[in-house]
């Protein structure tokens, strides 16, 4: 298996991991255009993420949670490829492409409070590359190991440049103790080239437990050392964090009774549409990476 | 399998879990005797634990960490029953009975800064029921699910009353993100009677992953609801937390690079020495529960 095209961000091809520089800007747009001011844009550029407390109103959160419950009990959803269940008890963990199966989530993904900053940061019109609802149960919530989304999107989906961002919308409280999102500040400015080849169709497994595109200990240590720490994103229901596609992030498990439910929306620049995957494999299905 | 003697704290005998009242005092001693004042004793009685920042000096911490490293590379220790390794990579996770294999740890277990408060809380002379060093590695630190130590010590070791306490001594920083000890405040005042029988000799497995004496979701939820939350014990190296033998505690996994190393010492009242296990099985070995 070899790469079919030259990549500025090679991964899963060499026997040793490497920390490579980022070749793309972080902020592509202009502070003068708004809605984010120069201060917030500058911080996003520096640390790779932006936290927005109470972006959604409580009634919106209630409505979205009800919509999640509806999806989680819809037999068509549960039996579709879009649904990912817990390895153990088959509880619903994630539903992908929620903006295509739910008018409510379609509206959320088109909400100017999310799209506006995305458009400004990415310096162009944007489209939804991926959307999903993630439910992390209480008592038995599993960890999500460190990863750069861009590494996967580049190698497996053919996203050419680091010109996308994720929006994580909390429908429940993110606490210090219930497996909340952790980000390594500044990690988006370097690229961890991972080891290990990728077998075809591995995505079915990787949605449950990662095996490929896993950063090595030494690179992670270097990123954390440079950052001087790790940011655990806490906040109430309705809070939002936007983060760069190459920000190194993950989450610990959750043995507390506090379940978590978040919506993820990935906005990609219309000037950064997918090409052939840089890892040389067939593209993953559209519900994971929009190619329409 | 049936219990050989009547227990005030039955567990692993009934098909449904139950929340039972505590029949023993929490504080057995007197505030006037010191070293803890009435305020601190009262708080311990109410919440079930006591945090002491910087109890050990930095040079003591350094010395103890060096001693842990020595034990972790001692072939006699590594191959003994006292050593517990990670299921995956065989890294040393714990060494039991450290006060018997190390003069340095023997001195620590006899240190008046630890023994004084223990004697006062338990209202008598005390002895070391169990001691161990726990190493929770970075990147791949596993969770430790909720449990009451007393449940195990009563059922498997024959500890008659709730008249013991654990002292956890941090040799590294306990952070919000690296799988630090979590305690449910006030949980020590009730007893979760767990379901499921206990096979003989299961302790070899249970030191790696718990299967017996695991509290049910509903009881945990009730304890957390009553407490109004969970306390994550953070603090610098050299800090200490003492907690009641029946305090419900656990810890999340740890994907951060921040490894943790703690020493646990369990002091039991000399008036609470072990009898036959209340679960009707043979007693566990002495390195887990001193019967000398």
Keywords:
homodimer; Jelly Rolls; seven-stranded antiparallel beta sheet; four-stranded antiparallel beta sheet; 9 helices; 26% helix
What is shown here, in short?
The structure is a homodimer of 292-residue chains. In chain A, 26% of the residues lie in helices and 23% in strands.
Oligomer status: homodimer
**Total domain count of chain A:** 1
Number of helices of chain A: 9
Query: Can you give the helix content of chain A as a percent range?
Result: 25-40%
| Strand line-up in the sheet with most strands of chain A | 2-11-7-13-5-4-3
CATH homolog superfamily of chain A: q2cbj1_9rhob like domain
Class by alpha and beta content of chain A: alpha+beta
| Sheet with the most strands, sense and barrel status of chain A | 7 strands, antiparallel
Give the SSE string of chain A: EHEHHEEHHHEEHEEEHHEEEE
Computed over alpha carbons, the radius of gyration of chain A is: 18 Å
Which architecture name of chain A does CATH use? Sandwich
The average pLDDT of chain A is: 92
Measured by residues with Cβ under 8 Å of the partner chain's Cβ, the largest interface is: A-B, 23 and 23 residues
- Report the β-strand fraction of chain A as a percent range: 15-25%
**Distance linking N and C termini of chain A:** 26 Å
CATH topology of chain A: Jelly Rolls
Total E-strand runs of chain A: 13
- The geometry of chain A reads as globular
Give the low-pLDDT segments of chain A.
none
* CATH first level of chain A: Mainly Beta
């Amino acid at each position: 298996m070899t790469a079919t095209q030259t990549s500025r961000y090679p991964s899963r091809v060499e026997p040793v991991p490497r920390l490579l520089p980022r070749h793309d800007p972080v902020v592509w747009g202009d502070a003068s255009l708004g809605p984010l001011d120069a201060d917030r844009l500058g911080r996003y550029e520096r640390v790779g993420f932006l936290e927005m407390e109470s972006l959604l109103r409580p009634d919106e959160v209630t409505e979205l949670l009800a919509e999640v419950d509806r999806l989680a009990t819809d037999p068509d959803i549960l039996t579709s490829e879009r649904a990912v269940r817990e390895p153990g008890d088959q509880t619903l963990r994630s539903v992908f492409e929620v903006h295509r199966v739910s008018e409510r989530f379609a509206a959320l993904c088109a909400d100017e409070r999310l799209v506006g900053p995305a458009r400004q940061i990415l310096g162009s019109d944007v489209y939804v590359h991926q959307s999903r609802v993630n439910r992390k149960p209480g008592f038995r919530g599993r960890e999500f190991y460190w990863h750069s989304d861009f590494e996967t999107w580049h190698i497996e989906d053919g996203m050419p440049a680091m010109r996308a961002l994720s929006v994580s919308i909390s429908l429940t409280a993110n606490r210090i103790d219930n497996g909340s999102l952790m980000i390594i500040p500044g990690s988006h400015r370097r690229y961890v080239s991972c080891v290990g080849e990728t077998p075809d169709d591995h995505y079915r497994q990787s949605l449950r437990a990662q095996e490929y595109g896993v950063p090595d200990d030494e690179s992670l240590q270097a990123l954390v050392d440079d950052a001087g720490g790790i940011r655990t994103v806490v906040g109430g229901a309705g809070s939002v964090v936007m983060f760069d596609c190459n920000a190194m992030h993950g989450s610990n498990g959750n043995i507390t009774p506090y379940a978590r439910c978040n919506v993820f929306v990935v906005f990609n620049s219309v000037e950064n549409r997918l090409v052939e995957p840089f890892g040389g494999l067939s593209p993953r299905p559209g519900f994971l990476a929009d190619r329409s």
